User: Fold Radical SAM protein from Bacteroides acidifaciens.
Amino acid sequence: MYQLSFYNYYVNNGDRTIYFNSISGQIFSVSEQEHIFLQNQFNDLISFELEYNSVFKKFVDWEFITDMERDQKDVIRLINHKKVFLDKTYRLVINPTLECNFRCWYCYEDHVAGKMNEETIEKIKKHVKLMIKEERISSLLLDWFGGEPLLYFDEIIVPLSEQLRDIMTENGLPFFTQATTNGSLITEERAKKMNELGMKHFQITLDGDEKRHNRIRNMNGAPSYKQILQGIYYLCDNIPDVNVTLRINYDTQTLEKSNMKEVFEMIPAKYRHKISPSFQRVWQTESKRNEDGNNPNKLAIFEYCKELGYDAENPSSCLSVLKGHTCYVDRYYHTEINFDGKIYKCTARAYSDEYVLGELQDDGHILWNQEKMRKMYAKATFENEMCLACKHMPLCTGPCSQKLMETPKELLHTICPLTTADVNVDTFIRNLYDGKMKALQAAESIS
Assistant:
């Protein structure tokens, strides 16, 4: 016996209806007449299978129709297990320091003074060698974080990147490196060195237009807006295949009162395909979403970015197709080493003892807090009553593992990502469909 999938969507899109299934990721559109026909067939699946067998089988293959004995949640469970435990790309986040040359009001870090010493650097090199030998990692993604990591670019980032790259190369394994930086310390010379290191991806933040940004993100009052943009231009000029995630930290006033169109217009067109705008609400200003779940200002500027030629794909920060897990931190092969050798997982919490999960040992092993590790990895983030009952679970996969550890079961509803999302599911699906159509048109034009 067959039944309709719980994860089917039928989204109005002008004179057509988008059909989307979040288990398979299949998406297409039909005319009004075709939509009426298909809905009639869906009301009688037995007749549908007998009268239009080849079409019926397609809808089974696409997961719109499923065997009643089959639990589609198991598809997401399997994807989750593979991505969390079997993906052996080791993402190693390193904080050379927690110091920063900015003091943004919303930052959750204390910026204690200190930098990574030679003893900890040697432990890290031993650790990577052990991960290759004992865990058989498939590659290393070295991710520089902080504080502001570029404060110690020459002292720590350059030599340690080179040494870890050589270790991976000697073992015939791929090496990648990237950085989250405020961008103010990027020079042309450093950009060239970053290219030599294979540093291809950067996350750099602006806080609105020039006036608003300089009020929030400055160096003891000195403006940083133009300096940060110049740093981005240096990256684009000197690293051929660079991608810069340009994170726009915003609250309601940022999108309403900042001239965000001007921000993206002033960046030269030759750089735009290398820049991916990412709009992230400042967490202290999160509130219940609008009645329809959309922030019109955010959507308007996102669409404008696409028109201007930026690499803008997904307007949502919490929805994605077949992602399998909520956050990169949820992956087992993810570790963050602080400058003092203490081990963390979450990069969005203060570096206090409360969040320590382990400590790097002299021989390169990590002494883990096993109780905290069990809480983080024993269950997938969506393995709870709220998420398993939710139609949107495959697109969202629930709160991150860190929030789940911190929140009692009776308060689970307070951390549902969809309650504060600035983009609703229907808008996400329309954008997904538009992206697919543009990709198909581009492929046809090439052929």
